[in-house]
Design goal:
The chain is an alpha/beta fold and 521 residues long. The chain has 18 helices and 20 strands.
Length: 521
């Protein structure tokens, strides 16, 4: 269900016809013919003395972002590129709005990170992490943190918001609200109906298509974006994928930017912090190896036979699922094949440098094998613990691992790529190796961005990609690197959205027709 604001005069849906701001007052005219005015919030000097407990100060562009957010009626979407401090900007607003108590909604794994940052920057009062609907609310708290997937399970969300007595809700990584009618999205929408101010954050709000952008727009400004149908009709491109019409990118970026510039802001690293390091990707090629070569060849032959001849009576969905199963199996085999080369690479790295390194993996058995092999290295790590970050860790355990990695003496972190895509600050390190590829390169770019953050002292982040020659690994790398400069643009013209389905389709086609050329079939 989509909830819209109502006109206070006639009670009809308040769908905006036009708007303008004069002398700090926003004037809106609705399609019903009535209008409304809203006093903007302005406090441009509020952040001159804003400092953290450890003496850090916001950068000028972060202050500008916070002032802009306060001047947007307290309903805003900060889409700054990852690593530019969206959290700090939100907390500046939360700390400066008069008589404000706020609730942060985020992924469960990021609750501790948000609580720590709130305590670090908003020194006036502690922050409480909410773990149940009936939890005792500590007196004197300025902020609260809750996970998206706990909030929607509450029986009475309005009563919960009233109990907290908050008037600002922060929505972190709002790409997780991309499904319009999901329980998660509707839970957030219900909560937001009962507060005056909403601050949304995301470096990648559009991953696959522009339609995924609608839920947060509707939550922030239902008078501008009253329904999904209205949004798709006006703003979303449509294309034919050979089977059905699909949603694409924005229909008219310039017009959309003009329509939303009062509540959406985006800055890139190149614009505001050109001195931040860039990612340097280095592809290192290895032989598949005799241990797994026969298994790979057998799987590839099965895939080619299936892809070219198929099975009678299968639906398109069934065939797509089976193709993905084959591709995933081949990727897993190449991951196993790269264990030895990766361990050798890391051993040389540790002997030749004094730097830290993160090893990104996908499959648990690959991660376990790499961990065991590294622990068996004699005299390389001085018996220091090798750290592991997996998706099954609690937020507290995850935070403990990261804090250890920042400490002197810990040089190696083996981490799940998907578990590392958000909320980690790894600027203490400038080297990583991506052992197993992700079908959506955006997930890899998010992992890389953990290093490109304020405080990174290196002028370059080194991302090494081992590639098993002649396999799905090499074909995938070729496709992705060719497409990297041709990805569909979004908002600021940078690469935000990868079309995963098209990548997979192209990969399947090339493997079916040319995947066995290295072995003569």
């Amino acid at each position: 269900m989509i909830t819209s604001r109502l006109c206070k005069v006639c009670g009809k849906k308040a769908i905006e016809e036009s708007s303008f701001t004069v002398a700090g007052i926003l004037f809106q005219t609705f399609k019903c013919g009535h209008s409304a005015t809203f006093q903007t919030i302005s406090n441009a000097t509020a952040f001159e003395d804003f400092t953290s407990l450890d003496g850090k100060r916001p950068f000028p562009f972060q202050k500008d972002g916070a002032v802009w957010a306060m001047n947007s009626n307290g309903r805003f979407l900060i889409m700054d590129e990852m690593g530019l401090g969206k959290t700090i900007q939100f907390l500046m607003v939360a700390d400066s709005l008069p008589d404000t108590r706020f609730l942060i909604c985020c992924k469960s794994s990021l609750k501790i990170q948000w609580a720590k940052e709130t305590y670090r920057w908003c020194k006036e009062a502690p922050c409480q992490v909410i773990d149940s609907e009936n939890e005792f609310i500590l007196p004197g708290c300025k902020g609260y943190v809750i996970s998206y997937d706990l909030l929607w399970r509450f029986k009475d969300i309005p009563a919960f918001i009233q109990k907290l007595n908050v008037n600002l809700i922060g929505l972190d990584e709002v790409q997780h609200l991309k499904n319009t009618n999901s329980k998660r999205t509707n839970g957030v929408r219900t909560a937001c109906l009962h507060v005056d101010y909403i601050g949304a954050l995301s470096g990648t709000p559009i991953k696959n298509n522009a339609s995924e952008f609608f839920p947060i727009l509707n939550i922030l400004h239902p008078e501008k974006f009253p329904s999904a149908f209205h949004f798709q009709t006006r703003w979303v491109q449509q294309y034919w994928n050979g089977h059905a019409m699909k949603d694409g990118g924005l229909r008219n970026y310039e017009q959309f930017h003009e329509y939303t510039k009062d509540f959406i802001i985006r800055r890139t690293r190149a614009e505001v912090m050109p001195d931040l390091p860039k990612v340097s990707r280095d592809f290192r090629f290895f032989e598949l190896g005799s241990v797994v070569e026969e298994a790979y060849k057998a799987t590839l032959k099965e895939f080619q036979k299936y892809y070219l001849f198929g099975a009678e009576g299968e639906s398109g969905f069934e065939k797509t699922t089976n193709i993905l199963t084959y591709l995933t199996k081949m990727r897993h085999i190449t991951g196993i094949a790269k264990i030895d080369p990766v361990v050798e690479f890391v051993e040389d790295f540790l002997e030749e440098t004094e730097r830290k390194i993160v090893i990104f993996v996908h499959h648990k058995d690959v991660a376990s094998s790499i961990l065991n092999r590294l622990k068996a290295l004699d005299g390389i790590l001085d018996n220091n613990e090798i750290l592991s970050l997996t998706s099954d860790l609690s937020p507290e355990q995850r935070d403990e691992v990261v804090q250890k990695f920042w400490s002197v003496g810990y040089r190696v972190l083996v981490a799940s790529t998907l578990a590392s895509g958000e909320g980690l600050n790894l600027q203490c390190c400038s080297d990583c190796i991506v052992v197993e590829r992700q079908w959506n390169p955006a997930n890899e770019e998010q992992a890389e961005s953990r290093f490109i953050r304020i405080g990174q002292e290196s002028n370059k982040v080194n991302a090494t990609y081992p590639v098993a020659v002649g396999t799905v690994d090499e074909f995938f790398a070729e496709i992705v690197e060719k497409k990297r400069s041709m990805i569909s643009n979004s908002l600021d013209g940078t690469n935000l959205a990868w079309d995963e389905s098209n990548i997979m389709k192209e990969l399947a086609e090339v493997l079916a027709t040319s995947g066995g050329r290295r072995w003569g079939f």
